[in-house]
Amino acid sequence: MRRVVITGAGTVNALGLDVPSTMEAMREGRCGISELNFRDVDRLSIKIGGQIHDWNTENRFNRQQIALYDRFTQFALTAAKEAIEQSGLVFNGDLSAKSGVILGTSGGGLTTQDDNYRMVYEEGKNRVHPFVVPKLMNNASCSHVSMEYNLKGPSFTVATACASSNHAMGQAFNMVRCGMATAMVTGGSESMLCFGGVKAWEGLRVMSKDACRPFSLNRNGMVQGEGAAVFVFEDYEHAKARGADILCEVIGFAMTSDASDIVMPSKQGAARAILGAITDAKLNRDEVGYINAHGTGTAANDKTECAAVADVLGHHADKVMISSTKSMHGHLIGGTGAVELLACIMALKDGVIAPTINYEEPDPECALDVVPNTARDAKVDVVLSNAFAFGGLNAVIALRKAA
Amino acid sequence: MPSEIKTKVIEIIAEQAVLEPSDVREDQSLDDLGIDSLGLVECIFAIEEGFDISVPFNANEPTQSDFDISSVASIITAVQSLIAEQSR
């Protein structure tokens, strides 16, 4: 079994259009959630989200690219560029053949679907642009990243709702670990902030109209976000041999299925995934210093997640720090685990724990150290990142500080 | 009109509970009828569509809402008052 390290990171999200600005916002506990701005927003009852307002597609991509790149592909390509440039890798020859792309998404090209359904159903047009299918397909972002960087190894897209990114990164980790790949470009991307994307979520009655307040007694639901984060996972020996800057090490991964309910989370399913990641990484439970929570800010998730963490960690649960950065960037659904991995890297590399902002009132059912409102300096060696999806599919990643 | 509202609300709840409307009693709670959180959200959707009203309800804080879901009778009363308010 090979050791796996992260040698590049990139992102675009409501907190920042690259990693340094995103981490700065996390350190400052800044909120990236704002009034939504897109067509027909006045017909929504939920009008807030972690939207990227200063994107400016035309300055980033040319006309031919825009015809093929849905917003979620644009996000993925931009994040991948930052990550791959930081890694310093150039994919040629054997390295190209042994490196691939695995990205998570839930909605794929949802904006493209929304625009084109509107055109044929609402506006009665009978003809659509020839690239609608290659633009909206869930694997479009993965394929464009592979084409742009000559990545010819195992490549595909994972869709497990809110756990998509963690499942994607877990696959990438295991491929490098077992020697199937030398480097993997992995993470996730989501662009669900369009009329149809938010309208669908409204229907479930779990969205907050004012703020995302994970673990706070007065929390009243989740807030959507958008964006991407992409990482380069690399064989440690390969990275060491070329003198690469190592951000942190990926040491464990586990996934479970609740097999119980399509929306209500199960404590047992979450706990099995958390324990599975700890076991896979060959850790003692008390080595875990920080957990990046799934922490959606819904009544159901937060208390179930805290109970699962308490069950697995026992007495150590009182000492571990656990925070939800969704309070700042919103819930990026299929891209969320990837953006949240940045908070894990920040904890390991910079010794700064990102806070759970908007925390107003303690909830006895979430009685853990949720790092309320203000970032904290703390030295941690091992962190976990939780993702628990609708459909009961759970995926937890374990990371260690670079040695 | 109030009795028509009552009949229709009971029909909606009965359908979610997979019961005959005659088997639904007004003192029963949704829990008594075996309706879970997803069933509740579906009931509210059916009520909104059936009466062309908007029901203020957030699944994260079901008891905080003005829309009282504690029993079949309370739901009927809440629907009646929403219809009166929103038809103004």
Automatic annotation (TrEMBL), chain A:
Name the protein family.
Belongs to the thiolase-like superfamily. Beta-ketoacyl-ACP synthases family.
Which GO terms fall under molecular function for this chain's record?
3-oxoacyl-[acyl-carrier-protein] synthase activity
Q: What is this protein called?
A: Nodulation protein E
Start and end residues of each Ketosynthase family 3 (KS3) domain: 1-401
The family database entries (InterPro entries) matched by this protein are listed as: Beta-ketoacyl_synthase (IPR000794), Ketoacyl_synth_AS (IPR018201), Ketoacyl_synth_C (IPR014031), Ketoacyl_synth_N (IPR014030), PKS_Beta-ketoAc_synthase_dom (IPR020841), Thiolase-like (IPR016039)
What keywords is this UniProt entry annotated with?
A: Acyltransferase, Cell inner membrane, Cell membrane, Membrane, Nodulation, Transferase, Transmembrane, Transmembrane helix
GO biological process terms, semicolon-separated: fatty acid biosynthetic process
Q: Where in the cell is it found?
A: Cell inner membrane
UniProt lists the gene as: fabF_2
From TrEMBL, chain B:
GO CC annotations, alphabetized = cytosol; membrane
Q: Which InterPro entries match?
A: ACP, ACP-like_sf, PP-bd_ACP
Gene Ontology terms: biological process: lipid A biosynthetic process
Entry keywords, A to Z: Phosphopantetheine, Phosphoprotein
Query: Signal sequence span per UniProt?
Result: none
Name the SUPFAM superfamilies on file.
Answer: ACP-like
Q: Does the keyword Phosphoprotein apply?
A: yes
Q: Which PROSITE patterns match?
A: CARRIER
Record has Phosphoprotein as a keyword? yes
Q: Which domain of life is it from?
A: Bacteria
**What GO molecular function terms would the record report?**
acyl binding; acyl carrier activity
Carrier domain: which residues? 3-83
Q: What is the protein's given name?
A: Acyl carrier protein
Q: What is the native source organism of this protein? A: Pacificibacter marinus
